[in-house]
Amino acid sequence: MLKMKKQCEKCGAATGLMDVAYICSYECTFCADCTQQMQGICPNCSGNLVLRPTRAKGPVETVVSQLKNSLLARIFHLAPAKRPVMSAQGSR
Q1: What residue segments make up the domains of the chain, in order of their start?
Q2: Rounded to two decimals, what is the model's pTM?
Q3: For residue 60, which of 10, 39, 67, 70 sits 20 to 30 Å off, Cα-Cα?
Q4: DSSP string covering the chain, please?
Q5: Beta-strand pair 22-23/50-51
Q6: Whose CA is closest to 24, among 34, 14, 13?
Q7: One CATH from 2.40.128, 3.30.40, 3.90.320, 2.60.40 for 1-79
Q8: Could you tell me which residues come within 8 angstroms of residue 64 by beta carbon, excluding any fewer than 6 positions away?
C-alpha cells in the first residue's frame, strides 16, 4: 500500500490525503511548489516526481469498510449471482 506522507520533505508543507503532492518511486513526497522548484526531479534518488493519487479515506477507515461489507455479505448471503450453465446443445 502506498504510504501517504503528511508533509513535504523539503519545506514541511502539509500533504494530506486529499492534497496535491508529488512522489518518486521510493515514495519521497513533495508539495507542488517544491516539485516545480526541483524541476520534477527527486533530490534523493534523481528519479521523476509524479502526481501522487489522492485518497478519500485513511487505511483504517478503508479496512473497516471492507470488513463491514464482507461481514454483511456473509450474513445476508449477498454472493454475486451465478449465471445458469447452458448445455452444449443449448436450451430447448
Answers
A1: 1-79
A2: 0.62
A3: 10
A4: -----SB-TTT--B--TTS--EE-TT--EE-HHHHHHTTTB-TTT-PBPEEPPP-SS-HHHHHHHHHHHHHHHHHHT-PPPPPPPPPTT---
A5: antiparallel
A6: 34
A7: 3.30.40
A8: none
For residue range 7-40, what is the model confidence (pLDDT) as tens digits?
999 999 999 888 999 999 999 999 999 999 999 9
Residue type, 91: S
Query: Identity (one letter) of the amino acid at 33?
Result: D
Residue that the C-alpha cell 514541511 belongs to: 12
- Rounded to the nearest 10°, the torsion over CA 70, 74, 75, 80 is 100
